[in-house]
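testing teh design pipeline on a random one, pls ignore if ur not involved
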């Protein structure tokens, strides 16, 4: 076998999440809000919970309001252990006025 296929077999599956960018004010870092929906075990109501995850954005291309895909990676800093994979949907920033 070639060396390339050996390294692909040894690499573990990484978690991926889809979320919205809520802040890009830091240098090469974005804060992503990830939504998790589940049914309450006792009351059977659908409950929504959110997590704020710090992700590494090397090029600084993600803006506030964008929908992004992030993946788990090695710790980059004290709080940052996710990295930006792709921007799924761009936020246009156009406000719609009703009336």
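output:
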């Amino acid at each position: 076998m070639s060396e390339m296929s050996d390294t692909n077999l040894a690499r573990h599956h990484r978690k991926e999440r889809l979320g919205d960018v809520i802040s890009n004010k830091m240098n090469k870092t974005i804060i992503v809000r990830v939504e998790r929906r589940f049914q309450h075990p006792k009351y059977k109501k659908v409950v929504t919970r959110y997590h704020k995850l710090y992700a590494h954005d090397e090029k600084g291309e993600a803006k506030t309001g964008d929908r992004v895909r992030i993946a788990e990676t090695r710790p980059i800093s004290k709080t940052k252990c996710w990295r930006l994979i792709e921007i799924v949907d761009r936020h246009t920033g156009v406000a719609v006025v009703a009336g």
